[in-house]
Structures are given as structure tokens and as C-alpha cells.
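User: What would this chain look like folded?
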Amino acid sequence: MKQKYSSCEVCGSGDIRCDGVRTYRAPDASVTDAYTRDHLAVLFGAWLPGLKEATLRALHCHRCGFAVYEPRPEEFDIDRKYAFNDNVEVPPPFRDENPAIAQRRGASFYDAVSSHVRIQKRSEILDFGGADGTLMGSFLEHGCRCFVVDYHPTAVSGVERLGSKAEDLAVDAKFDGIVCAHVLEHVTDVLALTNKLVSHLRPGGWMYVEVPMELWRRPLPHVEPVTHINFFTPGSVRNLLTLAGLDVRTADIAPYLHSSGSKSLAIKSVAIKPTQAVEGGPLTLVPSDVESWLKPTWTSWAKYVWTFPKIWKYEILRLYRADLR
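Assistant: Here's the prediction, encoded as C-alpha cells.
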């Protein structure tokens, strides 16, 4: 793991702020649920072997808002994560999703995009990181040609699998739209991956990004630091896509349906690739909004509660559970 995170991998700024620290201890089967125990086993068995306790620093870039923790997992660590413990989710989520939930999730992608972009019939859509492509149902129903890149070895009927990772895409492969949902929170270089995907967009094409919204009233990471290694706000998603050369139409919080059927909060963004290269000075980024979510104003509170009313249940739980504070 990289011990010192000195500059932002998204915007390059050296203005890195610490939001707090969190200490983790080697898993104790008697007090920790199985899911958390398996993930902490990765932290202490694969990433920080030999330690029984580790204190991680929650950091964010004061320029663009991208948030991580230190020490920072590297690509080698991510590979070891999946090799270390069979109970940790593997790069292919080899599980069959409930068809009704998958249909609703896929429809939410289509609705989010079509609210800002006209999706033409015969459009070629890539689902990057979409398992077997089952979430492309609504795009298929509207006459799109759909493709998927994922470690999952097969694709559902009507969707063509193009490989396991971004590097498997042919250099000249171009798409009218790319869906990248719940992927960027797992990777070690979010800007490099985003740039790679944008290079496969046709001019005028769109990109839909969805990531969990987890920055709320406490530093990250939360119960375990292995599942997600990157954390976002609406502002940091907007800045990421802007730096990748896209025209961001929307980047805001909204409820999303998890594959388990539970509802949580995500940042949903739609951005367009310009039809011609834009030349000029430095790109204008929106100011970091991290502190407004960690120490919410009444405006932030109102927006969060309006979007996600279940937050009151969570706030009550925080009074009684130390792991949620």
C-alpha cells in the first residue's frame, strides 16, 4: 500500500486535507459479522500483514473533492484482495440478480440518461463493469445494440461481451453511450479509467456514471475499508468528468436500488463528449463540496433528507452503534 498520499490523482493538486482517522482491529469472530470479518481479514492478511491494528486517515482533495484514505491501496493490493479470500466479492460478481430488481435497476439507468439525452434506435451502448449485461434490458427494448465488458464470462441474450477489462477493447471501438455504474469506487486510478472510456465514445456520445454517496457527517471509510477505496460527492464527480473532457449535464444525489433490493443513495451523472475538440485555458472546476456533506448546512440537510428520507433511521442507529459514528 502507498503510505503517503501527497497529491490528488484526479486533478494533481497537493492541497490534501485530513478529515479524521479511523482505527481498525484484526477481525474477532465473536464480535464482528461475517461480511466485515472477511473484509478485515483482507486488510490484515493481504494489505497490512503482521499488524493487529491499523489507523487509516480519511483524506480529500481541497481542489476537486476526490476522497480516499491513507495508506492507499495500489493495483497490486486490489489483485491480492481477490486472490486472498474466497468470501470477498471477486471482480466478476458471479451471482444471478433477481430479474425484477435487475429490470428496475436497468430502467433507472435508461431513465436517468434519457432525461438529458435523446437515445436513438440502433445506438451502440457499452455497459462497463455490468456483469453479464442484464441491466441493459431497457436499452435493448428501445432498439439499442448493447455490449458489456466485465470479468463475468458470459453475457445475456442480446448483449455482446467484448472482454474482461478496458484494455480488451479494440483501439477503434466506438460507442454512442457508455454506462459505468458502481465501478469507479473500486479502482486505483479513476481518471485514467475514465479517460480510457471517454476515448471509446463517439463525438456527441454520452457517459452515465453512478457511484455510491457515502460522505455524510463522518470521515471515511466506514465499517471496513476494503470494498470501496474511492469516495465521491456530486462536485467531485462533476470535476472528474470535466477533467476527462466531458460536458457534464447533471451530477447530483438520487436514490438507487441495490442488487439486494435495498435502497440507498448514489450520485448519478450524465455527461456528453463534445463534437469537436475544445481549445483554451485550464478547465474550470467547481469548488470542493466535501465539507458541506461532512458538516452539513441546513441546505445540505434538507436536500439529503428530501432525496433520502430513510436517513432518519440511520441517524437513530448512530446513537446506539459505535461503528456508525
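The CA atoms of residues 248 and 271 lie 4 Å apart. If you want, I can go into more detail on any region.
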